[in-house]
């Protein structure tokens, strides 16, 4: 009986690869990578320590009008309200946005409240605002006001003026 094998141009049969990676080589690769990572950590830590010392040594003298700080290199967290009050005293109006997201959120909440509630715009003059849904209903019922021409009275759009005596 003859065996039908497909001959590959590179020689050998169409079988699978008989040689895999050894677990020992994978293990040593991982250990060497861990050692390299640890060495890089300490190397970078040393480089940044040298750069930090150089930065502190090359700092110029403090401005005589600046408030004296016991340790100039220590960062302190200050409360937002205290910082906000200091900024309002220091900088004139109009100021740039300090916290864009929260300021925009407050602005949009005020707009939403005005669009969906009843309230006074000017109570002495009798000017109020109404919810937008109600305003659209009123415009649909009554129509938009039209500017009066010379000799006519203001009449909502869609309605005709009736003359006295007709």
Describe the structure.
The chain is mainly alpha-helical and 166 residues long. Helices cover 45% and strands 4% of the residues. It has a domain at 118-144. It has helices at residues 23-57, 80-90, 100-116, 132-142; strands at 119-122, 127-129. It has a two-stranded antiparallel ribbon. It is flat and about 100 Å long.
Major sheet size, sense and barrel closure: 2 strands, antiparallel
Q: Radius of gyration, Cα only, in angstroms?
A: 40 Å
* Average pLDDT rating: 79
Proportion of beta-strand residues:
under 5%
Bulk shape: flat
Task: Outline the fold blueprint.
Elements: H1 23-57, H2 80-90, H3 100-116, E1 119-122, E2 127-129, H4 132-142
Antiparallel strand pairs: 1-2
Short key terms for the protein model shown above:
166 residues; mainly alpha; two-stranded antiparallel ribbon; 4 helices; 4% strand; flat; disordered C terminus
Summarize the structure.
The protein has 166 residues and is mainly alpha-helical. It has helices spanning 23-57, 80-90, 100-116, 132-142, and strands spanning 119-122, 127-129. It has a domain at 118-144.
């Amino acid at each position: 009986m003859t065996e039908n094998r497909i001959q590959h141009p590179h020689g050998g049969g169409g079988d699978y690869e008989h040689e895999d990676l050894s677990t020992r080589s994978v293990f040593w690769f991982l250990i060497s990578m861990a050692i390299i990572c640890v060495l890089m950590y300490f190397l970078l830590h040393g480089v940044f320590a040298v750069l930090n010392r150089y930065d502190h040594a090359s700092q110029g003298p403090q401005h005589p009008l600046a408030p004296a700080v016991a340790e100039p290199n220590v960062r302190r967290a200050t409360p937002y309200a205290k910082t906000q009050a200091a900024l309002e005293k220091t900088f004139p109006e109009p100021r740039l946005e300090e916290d864009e997201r929260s300021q925009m959120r407050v602005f949009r909440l005020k707009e939403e409240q005005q669009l969906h509630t009843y309230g006074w715009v000017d109570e002495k003059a009798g000017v109020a605002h109404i919810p937008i849904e109600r305003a659209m209903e009123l415009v649909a019922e009554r129509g938009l006001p039209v500017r009066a021409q010379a000799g006519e009275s203001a009449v909502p759009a869609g309605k005709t003026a009736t003359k006295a005596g007709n």
